[in-house]
Specification:
Helices cover 23% and strands 28% of the residues. It is an alpha+beta fold and 218 residues long. The strands form 4 sheets. Strands 1, 2, 6, 8, 13 and 14 form a 6-stranded mixed β-sheet that branches. A 4-stranded antiparallel β-sheet has the order 5-4-10-11, with no helix packed on it. A two-stranded antiparallel sheet has the order 3-7. The chain is globular and about 45 Å long. Keywords: Signal. This is DUF4232 domain-containing protein. It comes from Streptomyces rochei. Pfam families: DUF4232.
Length: 218
């Protein structure tokens, strides 16, 4: 009888060895996969679009309007040349009698901090204590008015004259004040009148005023 146990055993041993090798290979593969670090993916960054968030397109910044427009208008009002009533002081100088006439200088002085000008005739009116006018407006004496430039503190003067009432026989009154209005202005300056009676009516009641010129009088 032939011995068959040896080939069978050898076959079994070979099968066992093959199974063992397969198990070892499988264990090695699983170990390398679990211990190897997985590569990390860098996070994606995007730049937000302001227009996309709101649905509106971006627009350039507005250009600022030039400054100094109001200041320029104000400067123009201050430097147009003419002296304003509020920038002047009015005075009546001492009487200068002569040839039956009474002559007074009306003096306008620049009290502001800027240079300004006066040109022409000042307005003048005698008034009583309540402000009522006494007599007609003065008559302008013939002359050639010129522009008088007044730096701060400087003066211009105009002559106010009338015939002496004692000689002319005109009807008279004693004013409380003389209202002096600078050329081209509307607001007068009130100056106390201390020179006595003035003519207010009759044939020889005319009061004359001359144009302004530099200085404070003759």
């Amino acid at each position: 009888m032939a011995n068959t146990s040896r080939p069978v055993r050898r076959t079994a041993l070979l099968a066992s060895a093959a199974a063992l090798l397969g198990l070892v290979g499988a264990c090695g593969s699983e170990s390398s996969t679990s211990t190897a670090p997985r590569p990390t993916q860098a996070p994606r960054t995007t730049t937000p679009d302001p227009g996309a968030a709101t649905g509106a397109a971006t627009t350039p910044a507005a250009t600022a309007a030039p400054s100094g427009t109001a200041g320029s208008a104000s400067a123009s009002a201050r430097t147009d040349g003419r002296c304003r009533t509020g920038e002047l002081r009015a005075e009546v100088g001492r009487v200068d009698p002569g040839a039956g006439q009474r002559n007074f200088p009306i003096v306008l002085t620049n009290t502001s901090d800027r240079t300004c000008t006066v040109r022409g005739y000042p307005g003048a009116a005698f008034v009583d204590a309540s402000g009522g006018q006494l007599g007609p407006d003065p008559v302008r004496a013939p002359s050639s008015p010129g522009t008088v430039t007044l730096t701060p503190g400087k003066s211009a003067w105009a002559g106010l004259s009338f015939s002496s009432p004692q000689i002319s026989g005109a009807r008279t009154a004693t004013p409380a004040a003389l209202l002096v209005t600078p050329p081209d202005e509307h607001d007068p300056i009130r100056v106390a009148w201390t020179a006595g009676e003035v003519p207010v009516g009759g044939d020889e009641s005319s009061v004359k005023v001359t144009a302004l010129e530099p200085g404070t009088g003759p």
